[in-house]
Amino acid sequence: QICLSLVKLLFYLAHSPLGSIVLLDFQPRQFVMVDGNLKVTDMDDASTEELSCKEDNDCTLDFPTKSFPLKCSMVGRCEGINEKKNLFNAYRYFFTYLLPHSAPPALRPLLSDILNATGDLRYGINETLRAFEKVLHLYKSGLYLQKRPLLLKDYISLKGFRTVEGEDYKCWPSYSHLGCLLSIHSAEEAAAICNSQSQCQSFVVTQQRTWTGRPLASFQSSWTDLIPDTNAVVYIKHSASSGERL
């Protein structure tokens, strides 16, 4: 969410009515999240000036660990230097820390491609935004889910119940520090997640939603403490419930 919002912001800056705007003091502390969108808190160090040049050798974009040769345009300006400077700063301050984590395994190669392409400046802001929107579409639609055996048949579902909330086993990347709370596309995906975790014996699909509209599911190591909840459904492994009376 943070990276996508940042890319949308940089897309606007690259195509602003004033021209391509560069953020000269590009640091994480210069941004804040407002209603799920990333905003710049200080525009004092923004500029529309692009480096002037006489030849391509005048257009090297330098960073502490990398340098990029750019083209000198017919009007004597380094082509795309403001856009590329913003994008590489987004890569080194945000993408490298946030993109490798938290995504479903099937989407990680796509995010790795974005990371590598922006780190080498092979993508401009237009290509980067398209790549992010493709990943978002796959994530929201569930199209990233590979065909797999149907696992939900191995669970008993109890509508109108949930387990008692409390501290349980933890997982990454959980939305709760007390247990294992993950976003899912469907109960079928939740069953696959539960099967992959040795501690998991049950899960509850809640009414909570993430910013993409995906429901949250709570994965738990037991199921015995059930309480009524008209908005919830608890799924219990057949193996966990064998010998027990429901």
TrEMBL record:
Keyword terms of this UniProt record: Kinase, Signal, Transferase
MF terms (GO), sorted A to Z: non-membrane spanning protein tyrosine kinase activity
Domain of life where this protein originates: Eukaryota
Transmembrane spans: none
One cellular component term from this protein's GO annotations in UniProt: extracellular region
Signal peptide: 1-19
Natural source organism: Dicrurus megarhynchus
GO biological process: skeletal system development
Protein name: PKDCC kinase
Kinase listed as a keyword: yes
Domain FAM69 protein-kinase: 2-116
